[in-house]
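Q: Can someone sanity-check these two? First one:
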Amino acid sequence: MAQPGLVPRISGWHTNTRICGATGFYDNHTGYSFSSLQTSLDGEQTLAAKLSFESHADTCGIKVEKYRADNGRFAEKSFIDAVRETQQKIEYCGVGAHHQNGIIERHFQTLSLQARIILLHAKRHWPAMISVILWPFAYKYAELLYNHMHVDSKGYSPAQKFCKTTKQMDFKELHTWGSPCYVLDRNL
């Protein structure tokens, strides 16, 4: 990303560290998407993204057996060693052959465009508080919407198919990203 983004934090101290990109995983069978935000696109954080995805997949009872990747960071010795240690396989696209991995390239383009739309909408309604530095939050929200609301002809979302469940997200808990929230006091 051209604009470094804020690091999502629930608690603790603010940091000057910024998100510069993400490593994304896409399950071709279910269409499920998982992105790991990174403050550096080095091999160490890419490997941490792999472990984060596998831990997430494990919560749904999924064991990752194979990766298809470009030959950048994923061809480094540390990543290959991690794949071998977990008895997984990895297949590479040709150099500069983005068409070989077109499904994920198109998917990330769609998520990026959706995140941009979400940011622009929020900026339009709350210009004093919304700026492009919030793009990591908008991107993860776009991914959440995709995973839970992009249904197939049978009515199943990628999250339902990935986790092999028919349980749906509670849509009452879903709020428009970037909207101000107020805690109202009934006594007033």
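And here is the second, same format, sequence then tokens:
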Amino acid sequence: MDNRTLFEKTTISRLFIIVTIPGIISMLVSSLYSIIDGVFIGQLLGADAFAALQLAIPFVIINFALADLIGVGSSVPIAIKLGEGDEKTASNIFSSALLLIFLTGIGMGAILFIFGGSFVRLMGADEHLVDMAAQYLRVYAGFAPLTTIIFAADNYLRICGKVKYSMFVNILMSVIAIILEFLFLVVFRFDIWSAALATCLSMFICAMLALMPFLRGQLQLRFVKPRIDRKVLSSILTNGTPTFLNNIAGRVASIFFNIFLLRLGGSIAVSAYGVLMYVDSITQPVLYGFCDSLQPAIGYNYGAKNHSRIAAIRRLCFLICGMMSLLMAGVMFLAKAPLIGIFVKAEDTGLMDLSIQALSLFVLSYLTRWISIVSQSYFSAIGKAKYATVISLSIAFVFPMIMLFSLESLGLDGLWLNLPFASLLTAILSFILMAVHLRKNKV
């Protein structure tokens, strides 16, 4: 099925099934690898290695931030241009974006390789944690030019209607990573750096596979000689800014969180927060995968000016995400101990008890967080970068930082309640922005 038939002609219910199920599966499989990665490191290498991983992860994501900016930022104008029937411009944006991602991967990788350990040290970690975190970061840094392309390539496949192939690539990436990490950590008993190596090798292999249909000229987007003029660059930066700021701001907030965690509870508090993030990664990717998989359809129909179809997609997306989020909240609250036991050894009773307390409060974020996720995804898809940026900055940095200091008197409980309060405030803001947008555009 070509992308015009898929995005513009298919019934809404069938469109949801065709594009969201592969998107959710892809996110879940990727999340499964992240979970297994945490299990391997937590169960095989111990609590200190698990804490070092949590200290390193914000910088790993920052390493991908510019690539995400370019990948997401180019996907929006590409989808809109294809909806307008302008394949030539779409292909130039596509080719220009890939070149920019490769170049920024070199720059970001160099910075992380040289200064990664120093960044972790500045957070207040002891030298043992710094050494493990630095090992992990340097592997990602070395592979950055070859791996950061994978997320953008996945977006381009879905824009071209290759949702099943995209799903296959994501599943294969996780399978390869799990096999390699098992070999490195279980069989060969390498250190924490090998977990990063397993991920990077799988990302590189699957990035090449993701680009193969484009190299063969089988899709609407084709490789052309890049013409990176001011208009193309401005379009990419404008539309990618919400995701970029969300990545950067969220990671900066995580660094501040880690500083407070180290101060209030030491490495065990850092590990407990890491457990929260891993448990969250079991369920939250369903919402993100659902919303992200619909972005190309929304962007295409926006370019084709099918406003009634966009409204139908938007309404159903809010309804389904709300129902899924409430269901997830119930499951997480009732199954706290089993979920935490996946990552924490049974004999680590202190970490187990602290993590259960943390999850009991953290799960409240699921009551409202879905509102900002759907709203930001929708605004990004139609090119309303300012609205999407306001939402992403609010949930990733502004409200979390306000809550970090406002709830400081509650100690660690204030940190576990941070996201629930930040999610509530961002949901209210998202509702206001959506109302203003709908009234202004009369849709």
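A (reply): Looked at the second one. DSSP finds 16 helices and no strands in the chain. Residues 40 and 182 are 8 Å apart (CA to CA).
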